[in-house]
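ESCALATION

Customer reports they have been waiting on this structure for their group meeting. Please prioritize. Original submission:
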Amino acid sequence: MVILRFLLFTLALTILQAAQAETETFYIGANGPAELRTGLAKKDKTIKSLESGTAVKVLKLNSRLGYARVELGSGETGWIASRLMTSEAPVPKLDTDPAATAPEAPPKTAPQLQAEVNQLQTELIAVRQASANVLRIQAERDQLQESVISQRKELETALRDKNAMTDDQKQAWFLIGGGVLLAGILLGVFLPRLSVRRRSQWNSF
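Update from on-call: job pushed to the front of the queue and completed.
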């Protein structure tokens, strides 16, 4: 009976110590690193700098000054700012690099390599044909542009010739009209005189 009580007491003490250790374990937060100092005075030296995620065991807490005396896993002790500690364990960063997580591909066999070479050759032939078609289309486009330019020049020449002929015709009709007008004026001047002469001649007989 005494042995059973001793075992139960030992088990309870172990559980209590484990729970107490769990509550006293903290981690340096993401706003680290934290300086581990030998004391709280200005003259006290810095032992080391603790990076974010470092586990520490809190031995004593000075709420008034905002510092805690901690112990590292190596057994070193010192003081750090309590605001730099957190009770939550850091979440390990997942490696998002697909090259690091992807399994290495097995080496390709000779038929696979030959198939890739054949595919590349087929794609190269298609690219060359497309390039030849592009060059042919560009040549036809340049030829059509030259033809359009030539036709435009011929049209401009024909329009100039037509305008020149029209101007010549206008000048010819202007001269003809001027000649007819002049003839009419002359007839209007000389016909009355001829009529008077003829009358005078008839009267003389």
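Sent to customer with the following note: Helices lie at 2-24, 98-101, 110-204.
Escalation resolved.
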